[in-house]
Every structure is written in structure tokens, then in C-alpha cells.
UniProtKB/TrEMBL annotation:
Substrate binds at residues 25-28, 81-84, 94-97, 121. Transmembrane segments: none annotated. The keyword Lipid metabolism does not apply. The gene is rpiA. Coiled coil: none annotated. It is an enzyme of class 5 (isomerase). InterPro entries: NagB/RpiA_transferase-like (IPR037171), Ribose-5P_isomerase (IPR050262), Ribose5P_isomerase_typA_subgr (IPR020672), Ribose5P_isomerase_type_A (IPR004788). This is Ribose-5-phosphate isomerase A. One of its GO terms (biological process) is pentose-phosphate shunt, non-oxidative branch.
Length: 226
């Protein structure tokens, strides 16, 4: 079993009958969705899933996991998702898979948020992984210039056809190549106040539990007190 599969399967143990479950996106979350699907089919696990991307929606549908949209549920009990980086103070960067907007919305309405990662995602400070910023296409060149002026090293994310990649909401992603983010809260606030920025990949004070897998130590669960 690979490291992503290990944490994916481990995290599915936190899902109980009757729960509304946020289903994350990415190659690690894939294994969690698979395992939840298996439990639904083989154990009769009774849950409602809320997906965070079209990709996860298609996957969950194929497995027969009952789904509702975030607007059709009264609450979300638990969300399980991957992450691109997690700092020692348990802030994170997400959005490598361009699903940060729905991921942040679903996480925001969740009582518990579990991140599942392999040990390579744990860092002292965030920023080595380019920070994704979702922007609406209109005015995006102006925003791009603002990011350049602030030395944020922006690059528009392209899809395989060389055109700007479109998110599920038909927005663009501008990745910021920062190397190190000294003050994530300050940067998040600055981005929050830029007109045209829909959302950014700084997930601060959101996770309540991190499940990490490593070659040497196997699977470790870290509860984060908030
Ligand atoms: C998608 C995400 C993913 O959760 C993140 O990129 C981690 O993905 P992976 O498990 O494939 O490394 O934020 O927008």
C-alpha cells in the first residue's frame, strides 16, 4: 500500500453513520473516497457526501456515495481533504488541484477538518509550494501586475492546451512563487482585500486533525486544538 492510500484508508475510519461528509480533492483524497465508497457498498455505511470538485463528484457518484450540494445540507460533520503543505503551526496551502474555492467553502462549514498527507507535505514555514490564487478572468491582468509590483512572482496556471486553466467555477488560477511566507495571516488579509480575487490557497486555522504517513513511522494522527 502506498503512503497516500494508507492515510486515505485511515481517515475513512472517522466517518460514522448519519454523518454529512465533505469529500476533498486530489490524489490522496482519492483513496479516502474509494474507502468510503467501499464502506457504503460493503458495510452499508449511511452518509451524505458533499464534494469539493467536479472530479470528486464524478468519482463519488461512480461509487454510489449519496451526495448533496453544500446548499442542501444544514451542516457538515467532517471534511477530509489533502493538502499541499502544512506548517508546524498547522496552517496549510491548498489548491494544487485547483479546487481551493469549493474546498475552502466546504471546510468552513465543517465541524471537523481532517487533512491527510504524506510526510513530504510537512514544512517549517509555508511557501515552497506555489500559493494558488483563484481570480475571475475579468481584470486578471491588472491583478497580475499588482502581484508583480508586490514581488509575489505570479504565474498564470496553464492547462495542457497552453490556455489559462479554468477552475470548476470558470476562473483562472495565478500561482505565487514565494519560496517562504513569513507572515501568512498578513498575506491572506492582503489577498482577501484585492478586488477580483475569489479565494486563495492559504488555509489558516482550519484543520482540526492531521493524519500523516511516512515510510519510517507508518501512520500518525495529530489532533490540533483550536
Ligand atoms: C486540490 C488540493 C489537494 O488537496 C492538494 O493539492 C493535495 O493534493 P494531492 O493529495 O494530490 O497531493 O488542494 O485543490
Amino acid at each position: 500500500m502506498n503512503l497516500k492510500q494508507l492515510v486515505g484508508i485511515e481517515s475513512a475510519k472517522y466517518v460514522l453513520d448519519g454523518m454529512v461528509v465533505g469529500l476533498g480533492t486530489g490524489s490522496t483524497a482519492y483513496f479516502m473516497v474509494e474507502e468510503i465508497g467501499r464502506r457504503v457498498n460493503e458495510e452499508g455505511l449511511d452518509i451524505i457526501g458533499v464534494t469539493t470538485s467536479k472530479t470528486t463528484e464524478e468519482h463519488a457518484k461512480k461509487l454510489g456515495i449519496p451526495l448533496k450540494s453544500i446548499d442542501e445540507v444544514t451542516h457538515v460533520d467532517i471534511t477530509i481533504d489533502g493538502a499541499d503543505e502544512i506548517s508546524t503551526d498547522f496552517h496549510g496551502i491548498k489548491g494544487g488541484g485547483a479546487a481551493l474555492l469549493f474546498e475552502k467553502i466546504v471546510a468552513t462549514y465543517s465541524k471537523e477538518v481532517i487533512w491527510i498527507v504524506d510526510e513530504t507535505k510537512l514544512v517549517d514555514k509555508l511557501g515552497k509550494f506555489p500559493l494558488p490564487v483563484e481570480v475571475i478572468p475579468y481584470g486578471s491582468q491588472q491583478l497580475f501586475k499588482k502581484f508583480e509590483e508586490k514581488d509575489l512572482n505570479p504565474k498564470i496556471r496553464l492547462s495542457s492546451d497552453g490556455k489559462p486553466l479554468l477552475t470548476d467555477s470558470k476562473n483562472y488560477i495565478i500561482d505565487l512563487y514565494l519560496e517562504k511566507i513569513e507572515n501568512p495571516t498578513e498575506l491572506a488579509n492582503w489577498l482577501d482585500h484585492r478586488v477580483g480575487v475569489v479565494e486563495h490557497g492559504l488555509f489558516l486555522d482550519i484543520t482540526t486533525c492531521v493524519i500523516v504517513s511516512s515510510e519510517t513511522d507508518g501512520v500518525k494522527t495529530i489532533n490540533v486544538s483550536r
